[in-house]
């Protein structure tokens, strides 16, 4: 590992520090000033945002006066906090106004700390900062994230769930605590069937919590990866696109409108029947008096039977109209995809799709082999790949040197796509913690030391095996599912 | 009896504001027991007496087409929805009084229905491109209804109602604020019922009685 001299490092750090501080402040300002830009800001919102602004300013100031040598990391944290907040407001809750600022704050804090964790991995590879401060930051980060993840988030989820049920409104807090205790119990029990602990660690150590969080996170990640690995080529490649013409769409739309017309005419009959019944004084089968009863027996028996029959027909037609609507939407989407695939971007993604499909097949193959032959990936795949290529091509190549950089780039790509995947699929801190565990596998042996040191002696082999199993199961079942869905669709259109 | 003439009114608004409950209340005079998401479009029919109490009284069917979805959907979903916007005679815009964004999205909803959809500009200010002139020459009557009135605490009621008054003025429309789980808001004789009745009368008039030379081709 090459390490630049300390002085150079400090100089670089200083510059970066100033830049990040500025950007962080700017983001906080923009966030806080946003309500003032909207057309009719309410006074209370203004007050709230002033408070927020001063709070964030105070936070930034305290952070600025904090540890001098690790300025970089702290400011990036503020920056990430700002990004998390913005993302939350823009993308996730675009069409809904979030009243509870607690939710936003927790989300942003989780996001900020998670990003910092990833950043620390990158620092690990690059050799930035001295190792003792890195160690300190690792510990700090992990503690905070675990605290939030295991204590705060479930509690608040329970609290909000309970406050939505009107019955339990009085003792919200009590029920929230009960829910949280149930969650903790199951969380603890989760650890029993898995061989994740060596007996020398105590009850409330970090390893206990991480191992449990890791299991949940690895399962989720493997499921998502399995599905994503299959879905990605299916979406990108145009080979799978069915041919949809405008005539198809028009025909389907005409059917949909005809169905709607039929529903409307039947509902008109029902409405008119109800109205005449109402006008004649026969309200809802409540016969008043002797003659009322006789009348209801002779006349509205036929009427109401007729009505219930029509009502059943209406229900069936409504179901049909829903199906037709979904099919039409599907056709429109396919047509749009076909048009998109003819553009330059579409062709690029098509090519990527072929590339990804090969990658997915390879991954599934490797997962099978790992399970069948009871093997865990010890060598970094990139190094191995380069070794093989180099030996095959006979080129003089400094494998170690290049593999560092390439693996760094790959880890960066994994991180970036993980973040995107995370933020879109909404699985939070657990995803990040388990990503850390799994990224460890993709890194060459030298880099693994600090992570192992911080996370203690978890059984990493178990996690890799578990990931492979779940990945395989998920990928195979999504292949099956997509195959069935693809098969069914053209047949439906044949029946038109 | 099916020979009565018909009028088509769209009910538009964001997901979850209460359009299905509202339509059920208007047509069946009952509260909807189990609301669930509307897939596609659900239609219901209300029988309305035009010019009630006068010698020209006539009964019409008013079809309320409740179209589900969100205004920020993909273009393919929007073009699927567009099939329901043909031949429309009136629009009821529904928004949630507890959720400001749903009121802001009404501008985009109305533009989408009137076939003059602006591409979504950004996310920060949704009505930045709003231009009142677009609604000045609009022939189709609009009505703005705010739901979930009971969930607004008394202290905030005034400011919410002022905001919605501005909104209705922008659309050049009447506004009604109610709670769809309580039929007394639309009880016969209340001011809300009168406004509703006036709106339907206006829709019927525009459809059947005002055939000018420069009518919009949306009429059949």
UniProtKB/TrEMBL annotation, chain B:
Keywords, in A-Z order: GTP-binding, Nucleotide-binding
Pfam families: Roc
CDD domains, A to Z: RabL3
Any one GO MF annotation of this record: GTP binding
UniProt key word Transmembrane: no
Keyword GTP-binding (UniProt): yes
Family as reported in the entry's similarity comment: Belongs to the small GTPase superfamily. Rab family.
Function: Required for KRAS signaling regulation and modulation of cell proliferation. Regulator of KRAS prenylation, and probably prenylation of other small GTPases. Required for lymphocyte development and function. Not required for myeloid cell development.
Name of the featured protein: Rab-like protein 3
Taxonomic lineage from the root: Eukaryota, Metazoa, Chordata, Craniata, Vertebrata
């Amino acid at each position: 590992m090459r390490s630049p001299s300390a002085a150079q490092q400090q100089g670089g750090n200083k510059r970066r520090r100033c830049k990040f501080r500025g950007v962080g402040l700017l983001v906080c300002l923009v966030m806080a000033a946003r309500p003032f830009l909207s057309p009719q800001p309410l006074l209370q919102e203004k007050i709230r945002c002033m408070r927020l602004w001063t709070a964030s300013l105070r936070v930034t100031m305290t952070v600025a006066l904090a540890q001098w040598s690790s300025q970089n990391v702290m400011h990036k944290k503020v920056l990430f906090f700002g990004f998390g907040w913005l993302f939350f407001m823009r993308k996730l809750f675009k069409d809904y106004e979030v009243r509870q600022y607690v939710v936003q704050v927790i989300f942003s804090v989780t996001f900020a700390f998670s990003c910092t964790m990833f950043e620390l991995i990158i620092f690990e590879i690059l050799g930035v900062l001295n190792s003792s401060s890195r160690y300190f930051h690792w510990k700090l980060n992990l503690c905070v994230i675990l605290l939030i993840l295991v204590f705060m988030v479930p509690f608040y989820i329970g609290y909000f769930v309970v406050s939505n049920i009107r019955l339990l409104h009085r003792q919200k807090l009590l029920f929230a605590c009960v829910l949280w205790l149930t969650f903790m119990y199951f969380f603890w029990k989760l650890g029993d069937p898995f061989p994740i602990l060596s007996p020398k660690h105590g009850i409330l150590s970090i390893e206990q919590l991480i191992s449990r969080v890791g299991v949940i996170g690895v399962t989720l990640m493997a499921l998502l990866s399995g599905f994503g690995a299959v879905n990605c080529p299916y979406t990108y490649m145009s080979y799978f696109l069915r041919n949809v013409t405008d005539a198809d769409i028009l025909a389907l739309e005409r059917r949909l409108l005809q169905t709607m017309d039929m529903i409307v005419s039947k509902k008109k009959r029902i409405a008119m029947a109800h109205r005449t019944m109402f006008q004649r004084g026969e309200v809802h089968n409540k016969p008043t008096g002797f003659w009322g009863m006789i009348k209801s027996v002779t006349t509205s028996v036929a009427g109401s039977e007729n009505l219930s029959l029509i009502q059943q027909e209406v229900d069936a037609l409504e179901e049909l109209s829903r199906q037709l609507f979904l099919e039409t939407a599907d056709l429109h989407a396919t047509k749009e995809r076909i048009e998109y695939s003819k553009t330059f971007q579409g062709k690029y993604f098509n090519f990527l799709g072929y590339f990804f499909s090969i990658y997915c097949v390879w991954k599934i193959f490797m997962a099978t082999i790992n399970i069948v032959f009871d093997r865990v990936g010890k060598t970094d795949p990139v190094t191995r790949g380069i070794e093989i290529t180099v030996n095959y091509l006979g080129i003089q190549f400094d494998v170690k040197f290049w593999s560092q950089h390439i693996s760094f780039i790959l880890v960066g790509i994994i991180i970036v796509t993980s973040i995107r995947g995370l933020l879109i699929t909404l699985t939070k801190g657990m995803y990040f913690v388990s990503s850390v565990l799994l990224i460890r596998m993709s890194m060459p042996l030298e880099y693994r030391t600090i992570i192992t040191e911080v996370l203690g002696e978890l059984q990493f082999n178990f996690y890799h095996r578990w990931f492979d199993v779940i990945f395989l199961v998920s990928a195979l079942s999504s292949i099956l599912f997509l195959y069935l869905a693809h098969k069914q669709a053209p047949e439906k259109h044949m029946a038109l | 009896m099916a020979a009565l003439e018909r009028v088509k009114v769209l009910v538009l608004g964001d997901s979850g504001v209460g359009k299905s409950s509202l339509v059920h209340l208007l047509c069946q005079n009952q509260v909807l027991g189990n609301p669930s998401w509307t897939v596609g479009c659900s239609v219901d029919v209300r029988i309305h007496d035009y010019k009630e109490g006068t010698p020209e009284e006539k009964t019409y069917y008013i079809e309320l087409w409740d179209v589900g979805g969100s205004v920020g959907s993909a273009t393919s979903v929007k073009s699927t929805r567009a099939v329901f916007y043909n031949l429309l005679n009136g629009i009821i815009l529904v928004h949630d009084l507890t959720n400001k964004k749903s009121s802001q999205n009404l501008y985009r909803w109305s533009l989408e229905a009137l076939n003059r959809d602006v591409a979504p500009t950004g996310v920060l200010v949704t009505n930045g491109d709003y231009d009142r002139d677009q609604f000045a020459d609009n022939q189709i009557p609009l009505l703005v209804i705010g739901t979930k009135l009971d969930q607004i605490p008394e202290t905030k009621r005034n400011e919410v109602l002022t905001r919605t008054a501005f909104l209705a003025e922008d659309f050049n429309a009447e506004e009604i604020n109610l709670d769809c789980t309580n039929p007394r808001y639309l009880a016969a004789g209340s001011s809300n019922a009168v406004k509703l009745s006036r709106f339907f009368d206006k829709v019927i008039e525009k459809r059947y009685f005002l055939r000018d030379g420069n009518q919009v081709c949306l009429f059949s």
